[in-house]
Amino acid sequence: MAEDPARVLVIGGDGERVDTLCVTLAGDSDVHRVPDVDAAEGAVFGLRPDLVVLDAALLGDRARHLCAALRADTRTAMTPVVLLQAGADGAGGAGGAGASARAWRDLGIADVLSEPVDADLARARVAWLVELRRLRMDMALAVRCETGGGIMNRRVFDGLLRRESGRLRRSDGSLALLLLDIDHFRDFRARHGAAAAEDCYHRVADCVSARLRRPPDVVSRFTADQVACLLPETDLRGARVVAETIRESVAALALPHGDSPVADHVTVSVGVAARRCSGPEVDAWLLSECLERLSRARREGCNRVVAGDGGPTLMGGGLERFGALSGGADMPPYGYSAL
């Protein structure tokens, strides 16, 4: 039986770019349109769309509130939001071509469509995001996640890694993997006990989840001490910035760790690998490289990110050190390098 057409909610008033997109998507999707953000709030939770398209001309405090509400509500937390904006020379509103990478991340935008919109590409992007949303919702229903943490377990993660590498092989897309190790966690467990260690692990995992804003991104328990992150359509440079942001965020939790020689609080080391999925056994390569780079991070003193042989090891600087990664301010701070 064929799946029902995707329900797409388009938030945008009168305008040629909004009209054109609605017509483009109407052939494959059940398109609903509201004129502004105020009208969208009721429509989002009533319609429960598979995907939301937001016209960049409407960006502002109300739009930020709507995006935050979507992420916070369990009914819509997996719903991707796509930004529709003018081209590089157009006036895209507050979130247009002049928007900062940090602003994209804070809004939780999953993808960006810029004028002139290519009809085939727009339909393909929407189909991909809807497919990922439905896959994640199916897994949430069928698979028990880690108790109390809301993150995927290792068995499901391994299957998703294989599936994503196979899917991206068809388009020569990029796939990134992060492996995070809680530094000197065995010492933490020995001092504070298993229950406190498990609580600490889930607080770190929740922090990691909060830093990954795109619906396709996945967080999983990898081992008793490690967290894995899968970032589709993300190159090495973008993945490195995400890893450093996570490292800084975990440190900012200031969870006490009296037995760590690194700091008086919990820290993490991160191994990062990414590549295009054009060759065979991409999943095995990513795991092997991540484990090797994570081992190197520990050898070099922990509390750092290692993202390549001979590359820099990071212990601070975060997003400010690298800036916008996509080569243009009209893209989110990471990912989509192959689109």
From TrEMBL:
The record lists the catalysed reaction(s) as: 2 GTP = 3',3'-c-di-GMP + 2 diphosphate
Short name of any one Pfam family annotated for the protein = GGDEF
Q: Which GO terms describe its cellular component?
A: plasma membrane
InterPro entries per UniProt? CheY-like_superfamily (IPR011006), Diguanylate_Cyclase (IPR050469), GGDEF_dom (IPR000160), Nucleotide_cyclase (IPR029787), Rev_trsase/Diguanyl_cyclase (IPR043128)
Annotated EC:
2.7.7.65
Give the enzyme's main class according to its UniProt record, as a single word: transferase
Q: Gene3D superfamilies, from UniProt?
A: 3.30.70.270, 3.40.50.2300
Superkingdom classification of source: Bacteria
GO MF annotation: an example: diguanylate cyclase activity
Q: Which PANTHER family match?
A: DIGUANYLATE CYCLASE DGCM-RELATED, REGULATORY COMPONENTS OF SENSORY TRANSDUCTION SYSTEM
Under what name is this protein listed? diguanylate cyclase
What organism is recorded for this protein?
A: Roseospira goensis
